[in-house]
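sry for the spam today, last one i promise. struct tokens for design, 266 residues
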């Protein structure tokens, strides 16, 4: 499964790169602030076709095409974000990724987050750890490096990250207050604009924690497993049990988790 997923995500990356370097990218508005481009659609179409051809009885949930149910009772579901960070992509800011997660019996068992511009490929399989390899433009790749969350237990020294969903202005106001509060309480906080990478970077120990309201399963399925397999902890922002179908996420290195819950809820 891992090799199959790596193969199709690399091919999808080539499709995305062509659009990224093209002059006239077609961009549409899903809502005032939420964009979709022809690259998002082409990438998802490609991935869905490849998965359907290889695993005809698996379910697929894609951001742009929705849910595909099959007659078979197979409990495997592929969860795809063809471009996570579309706003960055549309502005040619190379902070975006293709995210693929595989859920089996309600649990994510495989996840890959791949930025085709930087070549960063984060991957995890349940019980096997999280890894980062760099895919070189010249075909020379680095050896996969095992990832671990950071060991920082002092919030004052931590680098944090959050995100703001474009479709929820009411949550923008709420999170701006939390953003400021956590910037002061920690070393500082960032907003990169691609939740899958925010999670991958937390798994790699670059960030000590990440939080966001209202993400969708395709934003977080792969990233959740990356964090878990790198020794981190994931709950909702109030500290309650996490689900990729839930309302909020707090992912951390474990050591600052309780303090983050307190900060986010007081
Ligand atoms: C968005 C990004 C962003 C997050 C938003 C997501 P998209 O995904 O992950 O970082 O703040 O909540 O919707 O729309 O670029 O796939
Ligand atoms: Ca997304
Ligand atoms: Ca997307």
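last one done:
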């Amino acid at each position: 499964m891992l090799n199959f997923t790596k193969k199709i995500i690399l091919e999808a990356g080539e499709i995305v790169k062509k659009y990224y370097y093209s002059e006239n990218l077609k961009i549409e508005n899903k809502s005032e602030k939420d964009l979709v481009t022809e690259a998002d659609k082409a990438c998802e179409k490609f991935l869905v076709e490849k998965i359907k051809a290889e695993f005809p009885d698996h379910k697929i949930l894609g951001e742009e095409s929705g849910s595909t149910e099959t007659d078979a009772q197979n409990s495997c579901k592929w969860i795809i974000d063809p471009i996570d960070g579309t706003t960055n992509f549309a502005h040619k800011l190379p902070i975006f990724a293709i995210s693929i997660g595989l859920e089996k019996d309600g649990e994510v068992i495989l996840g890959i987050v791949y930025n085709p511009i930087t070549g960063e490929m984060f991957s995890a399989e349940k019980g096997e750890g999280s890894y980062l390899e760099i895919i070189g433009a010249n075909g020379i790749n680095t050896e996969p490096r095992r990832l671990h969350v950071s060991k920082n237990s002092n919030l004052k020294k931590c680098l944090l990250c959050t995100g703001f969903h474009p479709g929820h202005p009411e949550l923008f106001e709420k999170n701006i207050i939390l953003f400021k509060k956590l910037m002061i309480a920690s070393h500082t906080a960032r907003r990169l604009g691609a939740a899958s990478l925010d999670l991958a970077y937390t798994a790699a120990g670059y960030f000590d924690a990440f939080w966001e309201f209202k993400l969708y399963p395709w934003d977080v399925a792969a990233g959740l497993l990356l964090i878990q397999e790198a020794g981190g902890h994931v709950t909702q922002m109030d500290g309650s049990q996490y689900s990729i179908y839930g309302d909020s996420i707090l992912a951390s290195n474990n050591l600052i988790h309780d303090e983050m819950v307190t900060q986010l809820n007081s």
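The pocket of calcium ion (ligand 2) is lined by residues 81, 84, 195, 218-219 (CB under 6 Å). ok im logging off now
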